[in-house]
Amino acid sequence: MEPSNYENIPDKARYINFKCLEPGTTSPNGKQALNRWSSTITKGHDFPGAQAMLYAAGVPDRDTMKTAPHVGHYGRRRKTVTCAQHHDANISIPGCDKNMPGVIMAAARHNRPFIMIYGGTIKKGFSKLLDKEVNISACYEAAGAFAYNKLFATEKATKEGATPSDVMDDLERHSCPGAGACGGMYTANTMSTAIEAMGLSLPGSSSNPAESPAKMRECTKAAEAIKICMEKNIRPRDLMTRESFENALILTMALGGSTNGVLHFLAMAVTAEVELTLDDVQRVSNKIPFIADLAPSGKYFMEDLYNIGGTPSVLKLLVAAGLLNGSIPTVTGKTLAENLESFPSLPGDQKIIRPLSDPIKKTGHLQILRGNLSPGGAVAKITGKEGLVFTGKARVFDKEHQLDAALNKGEIPHGENLVLIVRYEGPKGGPGMPEQLKASAAIMGAGLKNVALVTDGRYSGASHGFIVGHVVPEAAVGGPIALVKDGDIVTISAETNTLNMDVSDEEIAQRRKAWKAPKSAVNRGVLAKYARLVSDASHGAVTDLF
Which residues cross the membrane (predicted)? Predict the structure, then answer.
C-alpha cells in the first residue's frame, strides 16, 4: 500500500532516474520499505535528489548466514563504492539491525557528507485468538510455550475450538502486518534511535513508521538536507565524537535497548577512531534510569512511541533534564537541541515513558559483568523485573542447536535453578557470533523463570529475561566459559557486576591443561578469514583492530 500522499506527486516526476538494485536486507518486510524510500529520494528532476546515484549494498542469506561478518561486509561495500565512484555525498537507507552500524562504519571510513534514513518500524499486529496486540517477539516466545504445553487461546476462543496449533498459526499470520523493521525496542530500533541521538539522521527518522506519510516527508527532505551537509562541509567524523557516542549510550539505557547496541557502538567507535570501552558503557548505565515500557520487556511498541511524539520528544525530555548533550552538531547544520525546538514535549497522560522521578529501574538495564567466568567482560540485560542476582547449577551446551533441541523436547525442567551455558558461539567460535534467539525466546515462552542463560554469542534485541552474552574470552580461544562443567554453581550479579563459577583457581588450572580447542567448522573462505582476523566482543568484534 502506497503512502496516502503519494498521489500529490506531479505525474511528470513519477519515474525513477536510476535502476534500483535490490537493497540488501534479510527481511522481506524491510526490503519492501527500502525500495519505496530509495525510489522516493531519486525521483525526477523536479526533486532535489534527482541526480543521486542509487546503489544497494547488502549481503543476502545465501552469501553468509552469520550476522557479525554481515556488519563489516556491508560497511566495506558501502565505503568501497562511495570512494571508487567518487561520490560527493551519501544517503544510506538501512532497514534492520546489522546494516545500520554497517552504514555508519562506512560513513566513518569514506567521511563524505552523509545522512542515514531509517527504513522505519513495522506496525503492530493483532491476534484474535489471544485478543491482544502482538509483534514478532510473540511468535518467538510462542514456540517455547507450545513446546511446554503453555500456549492457549483466550477462554472464549478455546471454547469455540481453538487449539494451540491454531494460536501459532494466528500469530504467524498477524504478527507482521506490513513493511518495516521489528517493532519493539529490539536491535533495529535501538540502533536507529541511538544514531538519531548522535545527530547522524534527520529528526524523527528513528520513530517514523515504515508505512507512514511522515517517512515519505522525511525522504523528500533528505536531498535538501544532504545539500546543506555538502555546502557546510559537515562530515561524519565531525559528528561521530565521544560526546555523540555518549548520547547514543544514554538513550539506549533510557529506552531499554538491545545488548547488540553495545557491540555495535564499540565497533562504530573503532572505525571512527573514538575511544569507547565497556567501562564507558557501565559508567553511563550507573547514572541513567530505565524509563521506557517498550517491548520486549514492556507493553508498548515503537508505533505507540511515534504516536506520542516519537524519539524527538524523548530526546527533548533527556536534554531538559541535563542527562543528554543537546549541543552536539547534527546533519541539519543545527545542534541537537535546536532540532528539538519544533517538537512537542511528551503528553502528560501518556504511559509509555515513565517520569525520570519514577523510573522502571533507577539505573540502566545493561550491565558489564566481570569475574572468573568473564575476566574480559560480558554484557547482561537485566531490567530488574527478573531480579538482580541469580545462582544456579550449570548445564552446558557446546552450540545453540543443542539447547534448542533440549527445549523443543521439554528437557529443561521447571523447579531447580539452572544456568544454561551456550558456548563456542563467539566471534571466532561461531564463527560470526550468532544470536541465541530461539533459546532465549523459548525459555521466556515456556515460563522457565528458574533459568538463566549465559553465552559467548549474542542475543536478539527481542531477547529478555536473565540473560548474559558477549562473554570474553570466548570458548574458542580457551576462555573460562570453555572450562565450565555440568553441575558447577554459577552466580550472576547485577549488584556487584560479576559473573562467577564456584570453582577454585586450582581446579580451573587443571581443567585448562586438559582442554583442547575443537576443530573449526570452517577452514577456508570468508568465514575462515573472518575468524582469523576478528577481535573479541569487548572490542566490538571488528576485523581491523590493530
Answer: none
